[in-house]
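Feature request, filed as a ticket because there's no other form

It would be nice if the structure record came with a short human-readable summary line next to the tokens. Right now we just get the raw output. Example of a typical job, pasted below so the devs can see what we mean:
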Amino acid sequence: YRLTDRRASLLPLEYGATETLVSTLMQGRDGALWIGKWNKGVDRIQNGVTTHYNPGAPLSPDPVTVIYESPDGTMWFGNRGSSLDRLEGTNVTRIVYQSGVLTSRAVTTIYQDTDGEVLVGISRRGLLRLSGGQLTPVPEAKEIADDTVWTIKRTRDGRLLMGTDKGLYQRSADRTWKRSEEH
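Raw output as currently delivered:
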């Protein structure tokens, strides 16, 4: 739905049909609207043109739960199967948490820091880091290893914050995460 002058209207997606369950959406820096549909992959809509990315090919077969655009324009799709799809141009690379282990724990957040580090939250798996093509736990965030990281954002004044099941955390200069006193 789009709110204009306090009115809502249903936006048509592919070929005039609509998906009844939209799981995530975001607007890219180029103005394109990215829409993750629970059973039907992802649509990119720009200037009335819809590009559809199918689940299973080229995207992972699991529903998309998070869409993120990194500073370099790379699109990231986190899904319910604890994996990431990285879309660079037309190439999709799949990164699976603990390859070979079936899971239905959803990716809850993706964030690329100013130094290029990619941080990922997966339900009940704590904070993970993408390094060498693998998702590994962040040792500086051991306190929340079994919790869910819901969001990671950098503030205008430069602080890196993380919202979790246990509250708000802030990354210190030594890269450790400490519980924030802000409410």
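Something like this underneath would help us a lot:
Residues 148 and 165 are 6 Å apart (CA to CA).
The mean pLDDT is 88.
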